[in-house]
Input
Amino acid sequence: MFLSDLSIKQPVLATMMAVGLVTLGVYSYRELSIDQFPDVEIPVLTVRTQYIGASPETMEREVTKRIEEVLNTIAGVRHISSTTTEGLSNIVVEFRLGTNIHTAQQDAQAKINSIRAEFPTEMKEPVIQRLDFNAMPIVSVAVESPTADVKTLSSIAEKVIKKRLETVPGVGQVNLVGLARREIQVFVDREKLKAFGLTYAQAAEALRRENQDVPAGKLEQAKQEPLVRVAGKFHSVDEFRRLIVAVRNGRPIFLPEVARLVDGIEERRSASLVDDRSGLSLDIVKQSGANTVEVADGIEKTLHAVNAELPAHIRLRKVVDNSQFIRDSVDDVQTKLVLGGALTVMIVFLFLNSWRSTVITGLALPVSVISS
Output
């Protein structure tokens, strides 16, 4: 009764209050974070371990079983499952609802660290991650060219495109899929080594010794002491060809005399298929709590800018955009609200046959919805 009496006796005040509520509602709506999934913590951890070259049986015995045993002692563990293949161990740990997953992750890391000495020395560090649906890529971009090879595309993507996308507000991580880094490969011929009286270890030591940057101390200046470093790493096949492996009877033995050099690419650890063709793509993950739609808009603007700067034969094309589902869902909700409001007003008018009551309903509905 108080609000109705106030609205009747003080119409100007009531109108200003309604306008103020609508203004606050519009502002809050614009600042509202929009995402595909709710921000919830799923009580699940994954532990991924690589031991290249190990058989499934070795992985199961030396890695998976040992990790499972220590993880089972963490408080709140509900279920542990694992998958072991050649050189790879994947363990999924489910916790009871209500378990602090951040604390559980720290406990899991501490438990695994406590048995690190028992693992094979060649094994890579186990990677512990929380299950987070919001950590999935929101946009995937393909790098395409009818003429450039994957090595050239990888170099441009890693040095230019990736760095530009990482500057977009809200972007947390940019992952390159199908990356093929340049690698100068040295295939040593053991028979040729024997002919010169050399060993594989001597050839490897010559490569290690000559192909490195060497610190050279400090440079004394008036107000600064910059560090000096002698650049000795090789960057071309020609530099490798001039490398002297050893000297026999006063004659230098060059690397091509005992080895074959190939300017190729390193072994690819991931693959990207675009239109059923092998290619290169970038998966973009947003920061936690960032607005997916706003981040996707920022990525779109950056892609247009980068495309304008790249050579004409290299193009960036957005192949996946998860923000579009969110846009469609929001548009659908807005359309349903408008239709629902219009139908409500029509039904009120048809039943009451009073334009005054219809106007009141027509004003009250949007004010209440927007204010809330």
Remarks:
- The first strand starts at residue 44 and ends at 50.
- The mean pLDDT is 82.
